[in-house]
Amino acid sequence: MGHPVIIGIFIAYFAGVLGLGYMASRTQKNMTDFIVAGRQMGPILVAFSTCATIASGFFFVGLPGLCYNLGYQPLLSLPAMNAILAYVVVFGLLAKPMRYLSEKHGALTVPDLFQTLYENKHIRTLCSTIILIGIFAYMVSQWAAMGIMFQTLLGSTYIVGLLVGVVIVGGYCTFGGQTGNIYNDAFQMVVMMFGGILVILFGFDHVGGFTQMNITLGKARPELLLPFSDTYGLSFWTFISFFLLYAVGTVGQPQFTTRFYTIRKVDMLRWAPAIAASCYFVITFFLFSGMIYRAAVLQGKVPALTNPDLAVSQYIVTFMNPTMAGLVLAAAVAAIMSTVSTFIVVAASTVTRDILEQGMGKKLTESQGLWYSRFAAIAICLLTVLLAIKPPDLIAWLGNAAFGFLSASLGPALVAGVRWRRANWQGALASMFIGGGLALVLYFMKTAKMIAPKLDTGAIAFLVSIVVMIVVSLMTSKQERSVLPQPKNKKAVGPTPASENS
Amino acid sequence: MGDFDMFGLPTISFVMLFVIWPLWLLLSFLYGFLYKEGREDEWDIL
Known about the structure:
The complex is a heterodimer of chains A (502) and B (46).
Chain A: H1 4-25, H2 31-36, H3 43-54, H4 57-70, H5 72-80, H6 86-104, H7 110-118, H8 121-153, H9 158-202, H10 210-220, H11 236-248, H12 254-257, H13 272-283, H14 288-298, H15 311-319, H16 322-359, H17 366-387, H18 395-419, H19 425-447, H20 457-475, H21 498-501
Helix pairs in contact in A: 1-9, 1-16, 3-9, 3-13, 3-16, 4-5, 4-8, 4-14, 4-16, 4-18, 6-18, 7-8, 8-9, 8-15, 8-16, 8-17, 8-18, 8-19, 9-13, 9-16, 9-17, 10-14, 11-20, 14-15, 15-16, 16-17, 18-19, 18-20, 19-20
Chain B: H1 11-34
């Protein structure tokens, strides 16, 4: 059983999370409330929420595990150099058009928007399928991360950890919908930033300071101090892959982009990237925990880990007093919960809105729409928890694969849809089908050791998807897409004004 | 290497950690400063 103080902090934290879920549930009246929070969120809530969603179990458990193994390489290759750019890239390319089009055409989900942009039903079906596959894989990795955290720190079994997680997150998402999700994301973001600051303030003291940690790591293996290396750890090509996937490919992540639907006014998006990137900057400090623990191992202060995914939890148990441990642990669990909760809402809205209502033509009243969404959320939680009972070893890579799959499938078609007039439904369909298919095929071939590409499989699929989008659109007939703004220099068609005739 | 000056880090990592990383953060603020408020139904399209 875990320390009573840690358990006490957790009970208080869970009570806060469920309380916010309850508050949000009182605002839920229909499917629009459930899926896009009634389009009533402010910029700070949206910014905190996008950041909390991207900072997942992959970030708080998988990445410190990788930092334990590979030193600075994961930190510099991923959040510091590449992922932080996503806030400018994704907001810059998609925020304004997505927010405007979603309200103008009543789009509640990403598949909704795809149909609006390309006026093609097959695209909606394909998009819904892609989202469900990607989200299921991602959710399995999140539940697994949560099970591991509870296993070590509360002294529970992995299965009990999963069940506690599903009851709490499933509870506030099912009843609070997107509003509950965003309120909780913001709360959890604050907890995460607090955890990141605690690591940076007190963590280095355990290994003789920041410089001493670096010297210890460098003496053991000089490659641990580099951003990439040809001889050990992540290669230069992995760095490039992370740029493609996490700086640019985030455009294909529905859990991120659907946040744009929820903001009250388009212009409120102005400072959201800066707020989100600042939050992300602070929580990245958390990754130093993996390196600190590795330095402590090398200095003979703690035993080596058998499973690198335990780096964060062991760091907390070993180096922190129960109060701080409880707070930092809450930050790690918050990261997982905030991501998985968004996936639950996105998957539930895809099932209800895109498959049941739009795909199968089922007419739903406002109240039915809300309740169907809630039932879908429960079903998705149960299914993914079942799949998470036996997860793969390094959960970082499962999360990475799901991220690549979504980027390759949806990213190019979505950006081209709002930013390129020549894009058409044939190009989008081909890009989504080939990008998604290739990401899956290459991932399984790599897992089966049939291929060993230098670039990440998701990044290869993402590049191919971009090329397919462009080539197929140019090779097929132009589609007049009336949803896009008219060109500024286009002359008005119609009768000549009277003043010109006189 | 200049270990003392650069906290025991090689130059490339030092530059990435203490120069480029904060620079990327500033880029997101630049987005806010350059943002043009105006008509919601207009945006740049190729």
